[in-house]
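Standup notes
- DV: blocked on the single-chain target, sequence here:
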Amino acid sequence: MSFDAEWAQHKALARSAPARTPEKRLGHAAPEAAGGGPAGTLVATASSINGNANLLIEIAALLHEGRPDGDASTMARVPRAHADVAAQTLRFAAFADDQFKDTVALFAGLATRLKTAGTSFAGVDDDTARSFLSGLLASGQYVPPECK
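- DV (later): unblocked, structure below
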C-alpha cells in the first residue's frame, strides 16, 4: 500500500469517527445551548475540565511511548562516520531529547493545572448550590397545591 493510499484511509477513518460530545471537552456553544447567551460562549463543566486533563495526560503518555530511539544516534559514531558528523549528530540528539522531555513535562504540568482548576470549579459549583439551597430553606415558603 502506498503512503498516499494509507494516508487517505486514515483521513477517511478520522472523518467517520463520531465527534466528541460537548460534556467531554471545552467548546463554543450555540446561543440556545448556552442558555440564550451570546454566540460563542465558552462552555465548561467539571466533567469537561477533567476530560481535557485526561486527554493531556494521554498525549503525554503517547509521546513518552514514542520517545526518540537512543540507538539512532549511535549509528553515526566515530568508526562509522566522520568525527564532525558524529559530533553534530550527538549534539542534535541531545537537543531533540531535551525538547522531547520538555514537551512531555509541559503536557503533564498542564494536565495537573487543569485538574486543579477542575477541583476548584467543582468546589465553587458546590458552594453555589449550597448557598442557593440555604437561601431557599431560610426564606422559602411552602404553599400547598390546593391553595394555589
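- Follow-up: The first strand starts at residue 27 and ends at 29.
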